[in-house]
Amino acid sequence: MLRKILLVLICSLYAFGIQQQSFLEPEEAFKTSFEKHEDKLVFKLKLGKDIYLYDDKLKFFITKPEKIDIRKDLIVPEAKPYEIWQIHTKDLNIEIPYDLLKSKSSSSTFEVQVDFQGCSKQGLCYAPMSETTTVDFNTAVKNIEKIESSSEQTATAQNETDIIAGTLKDGNILLVLATFFGFGLLLSLTPCVFPMIPILSSIIVKAGDSGNLTASKGFFLSLVYVLSMAVAYTIAGVLAGVFGANLQVSLQNPYVLVVFAAIFVALAFSMFGYFKLELPQSLQNKINKTTDGKEKQGVVGIAIMGFLSALIVGPCVAPPLAGALVYIGQTGDAILGGAALFVMSLGMGAPLLLIGLGAGKYMPTPGGWMESVTKIFGIVMLAVAIWMLDRVFDPTIIMYLWALLLIGTAVYLKIFEHILARVLTIVILIYGVLVFVGAVSGATNVLKPLDKFTSGVAVSQAEVLPVAYVKNNTEIDAAVKASSKPVMLDFYATWCISCKELEEITFKDPRVIAKLKEFTLVKADVTENNADDKAMQKRFGVVGPPALIFWDKDNNEIKASQIVGYKNPDDFLEIVNKHFK
């Protein structure tokens, strides 16, 4: 009897052992690995036979420098139902872009952890498991780039912004500053600086009322304006580089723009003689204690106007500005980066200094005519106000405002009896009427008021390219993943002047339209500058719109093709054709 019991026990244990052997060990059931590529980390999970993974147990975290859940930011294959759960039965390859890690923290070292749990269809469930790896952008990623890319490829992988940032890192300080001054001179020809010309001119004309405007005084007033503008650009740039918060972009909200437009309207009515704008009496009394009190009042006002103009009137983003901000963000060297921004701003203001010098030197002797000229600059101030409101209001409303201003200007210019003034009055009146007719017809471009009548159907249906709008990084990833063609992501904002240039000039060029048909077009409207907008821009190192990001048909981001700021059709096609033939 004892022998039978022992035999049954041995057989049971043997059978149990066989059954135990039929289950895979955890390391066989779940084979994991991390692969570090040039621009991303890939987590690979290979499932054993009859093994499945619970979707809700699959989690991705950044655990250092702080714990952050990033599962929602990743593209994970869709799970399928199994009994009451959602499971994965196929091997997983989950990409974790380095840009995503950088968008979550300014640290150069990250620890990434993946948690998962699964079961065997034979009835055994495994304990929860975790895998971790470290990404060090100071060492590991650089080594990977050296292995995977030759030195020539690395050089060509830089876009314009990266090249400028590299110039700041490696160049001679004096040469760097001189280069940025040259960048500023080029930027002075952009639409962002143009509105500052009438603002400064009106200030100088107003100062000429007293009759003592000389060349040196005109130059001094312009210098105060330009230096204040440069200080504002520098402060805003350093803040954006160090903290990632672009002050200029933050100020482009409707409330600020409407208030500033109202200030220009008030300036205009002041020039029309309805009232006199002055500093508060208490501040005037303090300033007037000095012998040059009145002079200082004017200087303070000009300095304030220059500072605000830089922040609100001209928030354009261009490669030199982006390069300086990238340099500050990467190195923390706010001194050299700030100095580069300062001299760039001086370059932008150089034409304004010439205006002040010329106005002081060539302005005729004060007389009754000065009152009329002052009122003309009042009209210019109203034009600047409408130009600012163009970023806020519907284009049709802006068309009506331009029409009213042009017609009102024509009526006002009747005070001049000179034959040239009368001809100009007729031309402005006719154009004002045309703009009004254009507004009624639905036209939105003041420079093409009769577009609806002259072009018939402005753009054929074949030329209307489909655009997918995205609101966050998850939607960007989904759009890129779903595309079988190269992808172009367009960062846009309604207050962005250069964005409108791209849309009205570059993207309406027939050659550009033909090229863009080869792409899936995606647009991110960052007008509101909310948390999602900032996260999207931070991910791609975008300091502000416009910016164009490209992916090839295999969903690889082509960083060298990234475009910042306005590009004319020829320059745009040169960059795109270089990488997408």
Question: How does this structure look, described?
Answer:
The radius of gyration is 32 Å and the shape is elongated. A 5-stranded mixed sheet has the order 12-14-13-15-16, covered by helices on one side. The protein contains 24 helices and 16 strands. The longest helix is centred in the middle third of the chain and has 29 residues, at 215-243. It folds into 4 domains: 26-140, Immunoglobulin-like; 162-370, no CATH class; 393-457; 461-579, 3-Layer(aba) Sandwich (Glutaredoxin). The chain is of the alpha+beta class and 581 residues long. A hairpin with a 3-residue loop joins strand 1 and strand 2.
Give the topology, please:
Blueprint: H1 2-21, H2 26-29, E1 30-36, E2 40-47, E3 51-54, E4 59-64, E5 68-69, E6 80-82, E7 85-88, E8 92-97, H3 98-104, E9 109-116, E10 118-120, E11 129-136, H4 140-148, H5 151-156, H6 160-170, H7 173-187, H8 196-207, H9 215-243, H10 247-250, H11 254-271, H12 281-287, H13 293-313, H14 319-331, H15 334-362, H16 369-389, H17 395-412, H18 419-441, H19 451-454, E12 467-470, H20 473-482, E13 487-492, H21 497-506, H22 510-516, E14 520-525, H23 531-539, E15 547-551, E16 563-564, H24 569-579
Parallel strand pairs: 12-14, 13-14
Antiparallel strand pairs: 1-2, 2-8, 3-7, 3-10, 4-5, 4-9, 6-7, 9-11, 13-15, 15-16
Q: What is the overall number of helices? A: 24
Largest sheet: 5 strands, mixed
General shape: elongated
Strand pairing plus helix content: what structural class?
Answer: alpha+beta
